Amino acid sequence: EKRVARICWNTNQWLKPSGRTGKSTAKLSYEGVNGYGYEEWLFDFTKLIDGYKYGYLQPIRLTEYPNTLFDIRLYTLNKSNGFRYWIGDLFNVSVLSAEEKAALQSIYETKGWINSMDNDLRAKGIIPQNDFSLNVRFKKEDAVRFVTPIKIDPKEALYDIKRYTFLTESYYPSV
After folding, report:
1. Entry pTM
2. pLDDT tens digits for range 99-136
3. Does the N-terminal or the C-terminal CB of the chain have fewer CB atoms within 10 Å?
C-alpha cells in the first residue's frame, strides 16, 4: 500500500534532534509540549539490527497493520514559515507488533542507544521523557531522503491536514 505520513521538522537530516525551532507549538501535541518527536532519528543508520532500521512514525502510533508492507512518502511542516516539504520515501515498511516493540526497547537499552538518544536531546536543551517508542522497520536500502526537501504547493490538499494522519494513496504524489 502507498501512504503519506508527516514527520516532525528537523534541520539535522533526521539523524539526531535539531531543537525546538520550526517544531509544532500546539499545546496538546507531543512535539509542542516536549520539543521533539521520535522521528528525529529516522535516518540515523548507525543503529541497525539484522539489517533493519527501526524507527517511529507518529501517524502509526495507535494502529497495528499485520502482514502489510507500505511505501511511505514522508513530509514535514516547518512551523516557522508554515510551509510543508516532501523529504523522502520509505519502501517496504512494516509496522511492529506490541511484542516486537517490547523486545526492541530491551535491545536499545542493552546497546546503550536509548542513553545516546537521551544525550542527543540534552545537547539541544531538551529533557528526555523516558517514553521510548518504535513502531516501524525498514531496510537502509529502502530509505531515500531527498538531499533538498521539495516545497509542497500550498494549494495541495495536504495543507488541509492539521495533525499526524496516516494518509491514503490519494495523497501520494507523482513527484
Report:
1. 0.93
2. 898 899 899 999 999 999 999 999 999 999 888 889 99
3. C
Element spanning 100, H or E = helix 98-111
Give me the amino acid identity at 13.
Q
C-alpha cell at position 90? 520509505
Cα separation, 118 vs 105, whole angstroms: 14
CA distance 113 to 39: 15
> What does DSSP say about strands 69-78 and 83-95: parallel, antiparallel, or unpaired?
antiparallel
In angstroms, the CA 117 to CA 123 distance is 10
Q: How far apart are CA 17 and CA 98, in angstroms?
A: 25
Query: d(Cα 8, Cα 35) in Å, to the nearest integer?
Result: 10
Q: How far is CA 111 from CA 28, 30, 36, 117, in A?
A: 32, 26, 22, 12
